[in-house]
Amino acid sequence: MMAGARCPRCGAGTGTGSSFCPYCGAQLGQALGQPLGQPMAQPMGQTMGTSYNMPSGQGRIVPQLSTNAYIIDQKILAIRDTFAVKDRSGNLLAYVKQQLLSFGPKFWYEDTNGQKLGEIHGKVLTIRPTYEIYDAQGQMVAQVKKKIVSFLGEKWWMENASGQEIAKMKGNIWEHDYNIQDMSGQPIAQIHKKWVSVRDSYCIEILNTSIDPYMIISYAISLDHTEKKEKH
Question: Which domain holds residue 19?
Answer without folding.
Answer: 1-35
